[in-house]
């Protein structure tokens, strides 16, 4: 599922228990309540952040956004400060909390910075995360966020290019659904369109509020 490069190994222990690779996944009491998987850093540069030894490029990924339009991630976020997260809308805790914390932090930006920022949520459960579902779910968090859905293989490939492990959703006999995915939020600079750091699960809204003004200007927090 997830292969660690030497660079990523040095930066963080992004190991997953599913399929014997360290990814803990759990499912809720019904098919609408699957659980997310959290990956945590071994030695973060600062609480909630991991600095990448080699910056990551944005994955080449074209999917469908919440308005039903084709969305080219590289082209449509070029030159913009961008936060990228892989998750799913039926997640009971990690995904909504992460997106809400980003939204709360982004609201602290001045209007010009807020207009420049792109926050992109890529579904790891595209069969259930239709454009309509994404629009409803993100609309309750921040309507300016972009939600993407589409071919799972393309999404998985894009996630893996960043060192993020995701697995196909698994539906169990009791109706529960398990969706296993990494919980990193990648921050791409507007200066070179590369991610120089990522945020781990549990990063607070206060940290996003403190860091986003720097990220918007292309500086490391």
Structure described in brief:
By secondary structure, this protein is of the alpha+beta class.
Your description of this structure?
The chain is α+β, with helices and mostly antiparallel strands. The chain has a single domain, classed as Glutaredoxin (3-Layer(aba) Sandwich). The protein contains seven helices and ten strands. Strands 1-10-9-4-5-6-2-3 form an eight-stranded mixed sheet, with helices on both faces. The protein has a two-stranded antiparallel sheet with strand order 7-8. Helix 3 crosses helix 7. The longest helix is centred in the middle third of the chain and has 13 residues, at 94-106. The protein is globular, with a radius of gyration of 16 Å. The relative contact order is 0.24. Mean pLDDT is 84; it is low at 1-47.
Secondary structure elements and their pairing?
Elements: H1 6-11, E1 49-57, E2 62-65, E3 70-72, H2 73-76, E4 82-87, H3 94-106, H4 111-116, E5 118-123, H5 131-139, E6 146-149, H6 152-161, E7 170-171, E8 177-178, E9 185-188, E10 194-199, H7 205-216
Parallel strand pairs: 4-5, 5-6
Antiparallel strand pairs: 1-10, 2-3, 2-6, 4-9, 7-8, 9-10
Helix pairs in contact: 3-7
